[in-house]
Design a protein that fits this description.
With 448 residues, the chain is α/β, with parallel strands linked by helices. The chain is built from 13 helices and 20 strands. Helix 5 crosses helix 6 and helix 12 (383-397) packs antiparallel against helix 13 (423-447).
């Protein structure tokens, strides 16, 4: 079934353009009606990041949920992982995060979490869309059954405690100087507080949100400010989050970026050495570097790949309970508790080195990555022509690399990724594919 509103990470679009108050209210009504049939408490938890449009969308969602008879608990800015945690902890039937993650402030989005704290499946999102099409005034709650809305004030402290409980009880960050970049987003208070309570000396940047500066020149998608600040202050490590704090990037003491694949290799090696992998393998997305796969193979560990999106990683981890410990996509650490139930994505505090030392290159450079280039083109290409193009270039790479071309699920872009042993060939292939896609875009513009 082709979905009209949902992408790879909920519903996303430009605020007051594609994502309007009317759409948000109808989503609230449809999701409320869908979950109301088997609701336990008729309770919804709503969180948001710091975008100016969050107030508008939150109000519309509250109207939609209460009109269907669901009770709403909302707090304002809180990280996506906090919404997941609170949904389960407060025995809510549904959780909602209002955020466009790493996108600019003009975009916004709506992500749904089920009562177990995990994101909804594709099938469930499709059923909500179907509910939107069939919803009628007769589905509204009776006047005496309209839901209530209540602000909850204990979220920050509860989430800090939750983050601390995901770490060993005796772990201390005392003696570490950490720069935390909160992207002027949802974690601007909770992330520095969590690290400070764990004993670190904390220098925080990107902690003055004004509704418009989220992800602007700060955060995991713009790490230059962090890369300058860490060596300038002689910090041991830098950690950058994105707008809703479910994405993380780490910088070492010399300002060098440590990407998600290196972090995953470090975690996998440690768990493997400690005998804590119940089966020999880890989960990552198709974007993870082939060098990681080779690194793991030398340790007889498999790399199980999924579609791009942290929820697909988590779904596969839950499906393969043997791999339930940890999985990562680039910039997206995902950790499941041993019971396989509690998600904690990009939790503040996860950047610390358990050994108590700084994030040195010798520790975090676990393998030599294959040359890889990723480019984006703002177009929606002809599928048949694109498949033929890919077949041609895949033959050029043979078994020495990979080519991946996919439509972004969160932006109107096509992502082109190529990797291989020959960097010149990789550059040539990406350049040719981008050229064809840009030419296709020019033809579309002329036709319009």
């Amino acid at each position: 079934m082709t979905r009209k509103h949902f992408g790879t990470d909920g519903v996303r679009g430009r605020a007051n353009d594609r994502l309007t108050p009317d759409l948000a209210m109808r989503l609230g009504q449809a999701a409320g009606a869908f979950f109301r049939t088997h609701a336990v408490n008729r309770r919804v938890v709503i969180g948001k990041d710091t975008r100016i449009s969050g107030y508008m969308i939150e109000t519309a969602l509250v109207a939609g949920f209460t009109s269907i008879g669901m009770h709403v608990l909302h707090r304002g800015p809180m990280p996506s992982p906090a919404v997941a945690m609170l949904t389960r902890a407060m025995r809510a039937d549904l959780g909602v995060m209002i955020s466009a993650s790493h996108n600019p402030f003009a975009d916004n989005g709506i992500k749904f979490f089920g009562p177990d704290g995990f994101k909804l499946t594709d099938a469930m999102e499709s059923r909500i869309e179907a509910q939107m099409e069939t919803f009628t005034p007769s589905d509204l709650a009776a006047s005496d059954a309209i839901g209530r809305a209540k602000r909850i004030d204990s979220v920050r402290a509860r989430y800090v405690e939750f983050v601390k409980r995901t770490l060993p009880r005796d772990l201390s960050l005392e003696g570490l100087r950490i720069v935390i970049d909160c992207a002027s987003g949802a974690a601007y208070k909770v992330a520095p507080e969590a690290l400070w309570e764990l004993g670190a000396e904390v220098i925080a940047i990107g902690v003055e949100p004004d509704g418009f500066n989220i992800n602007r020149d700060v955060g995991s998608t713009s790490p230059e400010a962090l890369r300058r600040k860490v060596p300038e202050l002689r910090a041991d490590i830098g950690v950058a989050l994105d707008g809703d704090a479910d994405r993380v990037l780490v910088v070492d003491q010399k300002g060098r970026v440590i990407d998600g694949d290196q972090i995953l290799a470090l975690i996998a090696d440690q768990l493997h050495e400690e005998g804590r992998l119940s089966q020999p393998g880890i989960v990552a997305t198709v974007m993870s570097n082939g060098g990681l796969e080779s690194h793991l193979a030398k340790r007889d560990l498999a790399l199980i790949r999924t579609a791009v999106g942290d929820r697909y990683v988590i779904e596969r981890m839950r499906e393969w309970l043997q791999y339930r410990r940890r999985g990562v996509r680039p910039h997206h650490p995902v950790r499941l508790r041993d019971d396989g139930r509690r998600p904690c994505r990009g939790a503040p505090g996860s950047g610390g080195d358990p050994s108590g030392g700084p994030a040195r290159q010798r520790v975090c450079r676990r393998f030599e990555p294959l040359p890889q280039i990723v480019e984006s083109v703002p177009t929606r290409p002809n599928a048949a022509a694109l498949n033929a193009l890919m077949e041609t270039h895949e033959r050029r790479l043979e078994a020495r690399g990979r080519l991946l071309v996919r439509a972004s699920g969160t932006e109107n872009l096509v992502r082109i990724m190529a990797e291989g042993e020959d960097p010149g060939l990789v550059r040539s292939i990406v350049g040719e594919v981008c050229g064809v896609l840009r030419n296709d875009l020019s033809q579309q513009a002329r036709a319009a």
